Amino acid sequence: PTKVEYNGNKVNSIAIKEDRCMYCGNCYTMCPALPISDGEGDGVAIMVGGKVSNRISMPKFSKVVVGYIPNEPPRWPTLTKTIKHIVEVYSANANKYERLGDWAERIGWESFFKMTGLEFTHHLIDDFRDPAYYTWRQSTQFKF
Ligand code: SF4
After folding, report:
1. Do 67 and 5 share a structural domain?
2. Are residues 144 and 77 in the same domain?
3. pLDDT tens digits for 95-126?
């Protein structure tokens, strides 16, 4: 515990030894007001296509389609511009009522990246498969 200046008053708080911080995230997930203190690496990733619903296709995880956008509060201009662009390309090309993940799977993720103009890098490759993926029933969808 230490005293810090807050609104002109000295208040009890904690101080982080920045040289010992390994960015594990335990503190700021418990205390969202705590700023993430890595000024250089602080950024935002965009994930799309995930869904919980069983409608039409099985539930699926989102995929990372943009690995890093700088954190630019309070209006996040790069982030909002990128999201707006993704949504506009999706809405102009998907079928009516087709969800983004279903659209991307129908046209192929390669086409998704071509159409949106987003850069595909090896950091975005998602080849993780738990063995349960092939053996467990994961949805209420049936094929007779
Ligand atoms: S992120 Fe927070 S809890 Fe984790 S090492 Fe850094 S200061 Fe400690």
Report:
1. no
2. yes
3. 999 999 999 999 999 999 999 999 998 888 87
| Count of domains for the chain | 2
What's the pLDDT score for residue 56? 85
- Residues 51 and 30 reside in one and the same domain: no
What is the distance between the alpha carbons of residues 110 and 91, in angstroms, rounded to a whole number?
18
* Residue 85 Cα distances to 44, 82, 89, 90, angstroms: 16, 5, 6, 9
Q: Are residues 137 and 86 in the same domain?
A: yes
Provide the domain limits for residue 128.
Answer: 40-144
Mutate which of 2, 14, 24 for ligand 1 pocket (most atoms within 8 A of beta carbon):
24
Best residue among 2, 17, 18, 21 to mutate for probing ligand 1, ranked by most atoms within 8 Å of CB: 21
Alpha carbon nearest to ligand 1 atom 8, residue: 21
Tell me, what DSSP letter sits at residue 7? T
Domain check: are 55 and 106 in the same one?
yes
Asked whether the beta carbons of 50 and 62 are under 8 A apart, the reply is yes
Query: How remote is the CA of residue 21 from the centroid of ligand 1, in Å?
Result: 5
